[in-house]
């Protein structure tokens, strides 16, 4: 199974981890009052942690004990870097080398289209770079989370927390930001830092780095490191930033700026959110909120206080999510970029999709369309089910469902008010948003096979 379908292995391992974490969080030692956490709440929290979502049905700062917090922290660390990537890192650590099978497994985690036969090897990450990528994953995880902890801890001490609590909260927040989980262990949440440019800036940088994906971080590191080696340029070994990294960075920045301007403009005169703030704080809060829609979830504004138009914009941003092979969720920015490039090529009459001087094959568009349709179907089905269970209006339910599917974690409080059946539906939505689209992409790519015949062509009327 490892050789034939790495995506199925990832699906099974994710599901197995969720069951194990549910059992651990159900133990009396996992709760602060040493009581048994109800199964629905333990299961929901386990899914939210492993799928790096950040939604919760209990108060994360008071319900769990230190043991429970550590279980949750380990869960979203493993879920954030990816099951197959984590397994490959452990294998590399133990054996100090990667065989072909391990390289293929890690490669399928960074690009599920590798399951397709005949797919060109001109991918975002070549097989020869897998070892370097895995080292980059491990190093970036350690370095970035350590740096975030170092930056956050002094600010928490200034806010009045002692050193042990500041270190613990700083590491937890740093890991939660980089993995795009969105859990906050501080009793008062982020409310005391709602207008603090230092704290919000550090968290936003952590979320942004986690949302662009390890292949992009690896590509940037390789580009910068090779730039300091003139002899590599002379020998023609200087590798440029690839198409995947360019598309991811460009599209992510476009969506961040769009969300920033849209949220600021729509909430400018809303006294419950940004209307009572000065211009600087308004720009700070709206820009920070836009970054959090990448899949960060560390919110500072109550969605129930926002205008309906703002919620719809945030819904769209959360549905798109972050970069492929990242800690973020959603249908991914490269998916939406490919769809826009296809529409542009059709409007201009081009035969091929083109970007940054490169041609994008049709099979990539096929996968992008499939992910979009199935993602919209999952959101629609979950929204209908929860609306029927709760009787809540569409804009409330849709916001929570898309946040779950995009593994974002921004919440209007609906998760904690759901009946047990609704919690299971929302948990299934988180699971589908984290592993479902990847599995779908691999399954669709794997069906690309040649035939010895073709059916007669007939064109239906479209549009």
UniProtKB/TrEMBL annotation:
It comes from the Bacteria. It is found in: Cell membrane. GO terms for biological process: metal ion transport. It is a multi-pass membrane protein. GO terms for cellular component: plasma membrane. The chain crosses the membrane at residues 42-58, 70-94, 133-154, 166-186, 198-224, 245-266, 316-343, 364-389, 424-446. Keywords: Cell membrane, Ion transport, Membrane, Transmembrane, Transmembrane helix, Transport. PANTHER family: KTR SYSTEM POTASSIUM UPTAKE PROTEIN B, TRK SYSTEM POTASSIUM UPTAKE PROTEIN TRKG-RELATED. This is TrkH family potassium uptake protein. It comes from Leucobacter chromiisoli.
